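Before relying on records like the one below, remember that each one covers exactly one chain. Contacts with other chains, cofactors or solvent are not represented anywhere in the record.
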Amino acid sequence: MHSQFTYAFKKRFALEFVNFPIEQQDKILDFAATFMAHGLSDFSKYIGKISPSWAGNADAAAYNFARQNDLWHYHIGLPTYVSNHPKFKTSDWVLHFQWKNRGNHIDLLDIYSHYKSDGTFYLPGTDYLV
């Protein structure tokens, strides 16, 4: 059976992915498989929290960049999941993806620590969007 949901790796992320440890690759592919099976209409199908990357972003430029580019992130479970809420789990690392028009396709962009060393929320650069 062919899924109505599709995903793709953006070019830079595809090049980086092959060098990731197997555990990271598995977590990314687990997310992709869940997306292919269920889409994103029901976040409860995912172990980790899914959020729009502009939500709660106090920096106006970062907010606008994330909103204009339909950037979202998923708590991937690296190094481990933490249960801070009864409905979802969070982790230090997140998988960034682009979900244009909340359709049936997503583009995987990168995986990175949720926050940069200065405490600000990390967003992928424009080079990850091509």
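The chain is about 25% helix and 20% strand.
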